[in-house]
Specification:
Layout: H1 2-13, H2 17-24, H3 26-34, H4 43-56, E1 61-65, H5 71-77, E2 82-87, H6 90-99, E3 106-110, H7 113-121, E4 129-132, H8 150-158, E5 166-170, H9 184-194, E6 197-202, E7 205-210
Length: 213
């Protein structure tokens, strides 16, 4: 794992990691297109989706829950945005601190996002793009009292005074009522009852955008 991290760090510093990773995953991307966009989109495709929302809504701030190996964080941070990432696992957070130690536009927080996010929101007064992906998924990922903090995360963001955020929730297929996930229909109903955001589900991403006016 450490050797892999060092190699990634070298490629990242040279600006080569993301172009090479995209080339490496071309077969996966082509399979996804051939199957009619069935299932979750490959990670490079999801990053294009995130970029499209950043451009469309002219957002300068990015906040994600679930740093993991830093793939998403590094991809977005290279645009020069102010980025915040919250990671539950002490080891994964430490690895991210090593990888991004020279990136002045990145702030990393270790801990449970359901507890850390509300405090961070108290310091935010501008629209943010939220990428919510801080769930337990086996392997080296960590878990707190619940497998996913999504209920607490979304409640905190919807209660924030700024109503012009863009909120993207990854892994829509997980919202089936198991492992502490709400049912997708219940989540969508909650968002619509809040009334401040339009919502749609596409490419396995639940997408909340501010309503016009």
């Amino acid at each position: 794992m450490r050797a892999k991290i060092k190699i990634k760090q070298l490629l990242f510093n040279a600006g080569l990691w993301y172009p090479l990773n995209r080339l490496r995953r071309i077969p996966e991307i082509l399979r996804w297109f051939r199957t009619g966009h069935s299932g979750a989109a490959p990670h490079p495709v999801k990053m294009l989706v995130v970029e499209s929302y950043l451009k469309k809504f002219r957002l300068d701030y990015f906040l994600e829950t679930g740093t993991y190996l830093g793939e998403t964080l590094g991809y977005i941070a290279r645009r020069g945005l102010q980025c915040i990432s919250i990671e539950l696992s002490p080891e994964l957070c430490r690895q991210a601190q090593i990888r991004f130690k020279h990136c002045k536009n990145i702030k990393l927080f270790q801990g449970d996002s359901s507890q850390i996010l509300p405090g961070l929101l108290g310091q935010i007064n501008k629209p943010v793009l939220f990428w919510l992906d801080g769930h337990y998924s086996g392997g080296i990922t960590a878990t707190a009292e619940t497998h996913t903090p999504i209920n607490a995360e979304l409640k905190a963001i919807l209660g924030h005074p700024v109503k012009q955020h863009v909120i993207l929730i990854d892994d829509a297929h997980c919202f089936d009522g198991t492992n502490d996930y709400p049912y997708l229909d219940d989540l969508l109903r909650l968002i619509r009852e809040d009334g401040c955001y339009s919502v749609e589900v596409s490419m396995d991403i639940i997408r909340l955008t501010p309503k016009k006016g």
